[in-house]
Amino acid sequence: MSLLNKFKKLNKDNFKKGFTLVELLVAVSLFVVVSTVSIMALITVKEANAKAQVKRNVLNNLSFAVENMARNLRVGTVYSCNRSSLSPAETPVGVDCVNGEDNITFKDYLGDAVTYSLDGDSKVILKKITGIENQGRTTPALPITSPDVQIDTLRFIVREAGAGGLQPFAVIFVEGVAKPGTKLETRFKVQTSASQRVLDF
User: Fold this and answer.
1) So what's the pLDDT on residue 171?
2) For residues 142 and 127, is the Cβ–Cβ distance under 8 A?
3) Across the chain, where does the E strand assignment appear?
4) How far apart are CA 76 and CA 107, in angstroms?
5) Residue 53, pLDDT score
6) Does residue 75 form part of some domain?
7) How many domains does the chain contain in total?
8) Are 54 and 85 spatial neighbours (Cβ–Cβ below 8 Å)?
9) Does 122 or 82 have the greater pLDDT score?
10) Is residue 200 scored above 60 in pLDDT?
């Protein structure tokens, strides 16, 4: 067999074993499409997971803040809305606020005045304790919600707090946004109530 015949036979075998350019383009195109769809699905799942974690963190923070308020209201006395301070030495009668106010003041189990209010500038819930003088329990107003949580509305409705009231109770409404201004922004509304465990007599 001559060298030329061997070369022709070798070329025929090589053409039978390879891929054509069209086959390669189709295979690469399919790979790119499948990869793109997979990556997009992965990104969507990752964003959904991040949003779920933000919601969980917000709910944990809000649950702590709202439960803190409700727990203190349950063991407190002399509920009054729209008072910036309440002297613990006073023994006033509570005041109903059936239309709702953005703050509440009451006496806690130690006899200190506790005020929960909405800070309009930083959009957080503040807690202030005004203690009995010379006992060192007075604190400045401190936030009880995270800066990642913007509180738009805080309302307290108090009923039966006045003289002759039955069992005073308060309803707390909180509305706002978690992670405002980001892709993870989530709106929320929370409501709870607390009735006084200790009677005012």
Assistant:
1) 93
2) yes
3) 77-81, 97-101, 103-107, 113-119, 124-130, 142-143, 149-159, 169-178, 186-195
4) 5
5) 84
6) yes
7) 1
8) no
9) 122
10) no
Task: In the chain, count H helices and then E strands.
Answer: 2, 9
Average pLDDT, the chain: 81
Q: Can you give the pLDDT at residue 88?
A: 46
What's the helix, strand, coil split of the chain in %, to 5? 35, 30, 35
Spatial separation of the C-alpha atoms in residues 98 and 100, rounded to whole Å: 6
d(CA 14, CA 97): 92
Residue 187 forms part of a structural domain: yes
Sign of CA dihedral 60, 71, 126, 131: negative
User: 201: pLDDT confidence band, cut at 50, 70 and 90?
Assistant: very low
What's the pTM value of the predicted model, to 2 decimals? 0.70
On the question of pLDDT at 145 being above 70, the answer is: yes
In one-letter notation, the amino acid at residue 10 is L
Dihedral sign for Cα atoms in the order 77, 83, 89, 91:
negative
- What pLDDT score does 71 carry? 92
Task: For residue 32, give every residue at least 6 positions away whose Cβ sits within 8 Å of its Cβ, in sequence order, or none.
Answer: none
Q: In Å, how far are 37, 43, 53, 62 from 49, measured between CA atoms?
A: 18, 10, 6, 20
Question: Edge-to-edge strands of the sheet including 103-107?
Answer: 77-81, 103-107, 113-119, 124-130, 142-143
Q: Show the beta-strand stretches assigned E in 45-148.
A: 77-81, 97-101, 103-107, 113-119, 124-130, 142-143
CA-wise closest residue to 190 among 63, 103, 54: 63
* 12 domain residue, yes or no: no
Domain that holds residue 141: 41-195
Is residue 51 in a domain?
Answer: yes
